Amino acid sequence: MSTDAAHETRLHGGRLVARQLKAHGVSKLFTLSGGHLFSIYDGCREEGIDLIDVRHEATAVFAAEGWAKVTRTPGVAAATAGPGVTNGMSALASAQQNHSPILLLGGRAPEMRWGRGSLQEIDHIPFVRPLVKLAATAQATADIPGLIAQALTTSMTPHTGPTFLDFPLDVVFAECDVSELAPHQPDPAISVIAHDVTHAARLLREAQRPVVMAGTNLYWGHGEDALRELVETRRIPVFLNGLARGCLPADHDLCFSRARSTALKAADVVLLIGVPMDFRLGFGDSIGTTAKIIVVDVAPSEREHPRAVTAELYGSVPATLDALRQESGRSVDRNAWLSHLREVESTRRSAEREHLEDDRAPLHPLRIYGELAGLLDRNAVVVVDGGDFASYAGRVVDSFEPGCWLDPGPFGCLGSGPGYALAAKLAHPNRQVLLLLGDGAFGFAGMEFDTLARHGVNVVGVMGNNGIWGLEHHPMMSLYGYSVVATLRPETRYDQVVEALGGHGELVRKPSELRPALMRALTSDRPALVNVLTDPAIAYPRSTNLA
Predict the structure, then answer these.
(1) 347 located within any domain
(2) What is the pLDDT of residues 309-362, one digit of tens each?
(3) Which of 544, 495, 485 is nearest to 517 (CA)?
(4) Per-residue model confidence as pLDDT tens digits over 418-434
(5) Per the structure, how many domains does the chain have?
(6) With contact defined as beta carbons under 8 Å apart, do 30 and 60 qualify?
(7) What is the CATH number of the domain that holds 275?
(8) Within 13 Å of residue 375, how many CA atoms lie on the same side as its CB?
């Protein structure tokens, strides 16, 4: 046996981590440099996995989640021991609530000196475990491949979600014999629980005013094609939220958005696909009291439904929707129902035109989105990060393809945007990637424009800069007649911050300056920020009870 061959039979723990990641199709590792991770970095270099370093561990984890969101494959991040892991906790919680399949690799103080006060020594498992589907520590170098395979498989098992592994310094730097590696376990098959399909199909067949409300698990369940076939065959109007946006193109004749409250209140049958009845659906109260509710999801609900449902179908979303289409037979004529909803939709869209073309200075937030509508490609990836500014985007920005809308999700964690945008552009380098963020959100992760510049990732940021925490300022004024701790420095030149970090900056004070600035940013050869001064007197007309 040659010396080289003998050397390849023994690999250090970091190489084993990287080799198993590569075997599962992982091509990027998002991280912030830490000594506990050096062997993993070495392994990634040897195995050809790109190392993408950021300025805060939260961004590394958000980037892993962003990768999962745009590719529907596991995203992977690595954080050093102690504060590196704790810095990523909010992003882990976000991934949990978004059902995003990610794996966070943590460094860990050495096992041989555990309990003696090594640098950054802390047991991560007890406080990470509530946020993940699997949390474990590698006790031996030979265990590493099996743990990586288990964590990635678990992250992709419905309900998908985050996993966590940490590696003691002495374990991950040590070597073991390659022959001891655990074999790769195939991903678990998903089967349909079909006993309620016939009942649900009958409800759909007989419905006069059916509605589909679909959310994030439609996307994770790869259900977009089956959804389109079902609703086109049965002529059912569709409303989408979360990652489901774009799973039916916004300009499809059965896709609606502005008429949602009207449709849900008047529907006699509501088909909920991969969407919980949480605050976004008024904890079920957004749906009319007499409506029959059919729930379709990748797995049983993680929390009790806030109101009674008529049928529950859990398993493969495409197979379930196909079965509903095939068994529902001929449907009643729904042209009048669809025409009514289209009239409501058109009326409400027309009412927005005034604000989309508003000439005030500072600008109305909707004026920004009015200009952007004509500049974005159909497959552009739009990332939102903020409060009221993001809410306006959610209201009027259209999506036409799956995986093109990335918002923080129900956890509402600010600072997610730069990480999401970084990952989206790396996954789709030839697409436009637009980051819509408020001035408040910029404070969480604005330094990541340095990351974008260093890695040559030309994301375009558009900021609504109103100098306040709008989501808190306006409600507090309404409740108390005053506002505290909700004011930022007005007209801060965040564009100059981005320029200092190696990007392209634009300041917009008047509507006439907006379109030229956007076009310059979109054609820049650097990451860019268009800093648009917006009117702090404008409050988003929020009707949802968030709690």
Answers:
(1) no
(2) 999 999 999 999 999 999 887 778 999 999 999 999 999 999 999 999 999 999
(3) 495
(4) 999 999 999 999 999 99
(5) 3
(6) yes
(7) 3.40.50.1220
(8) 21
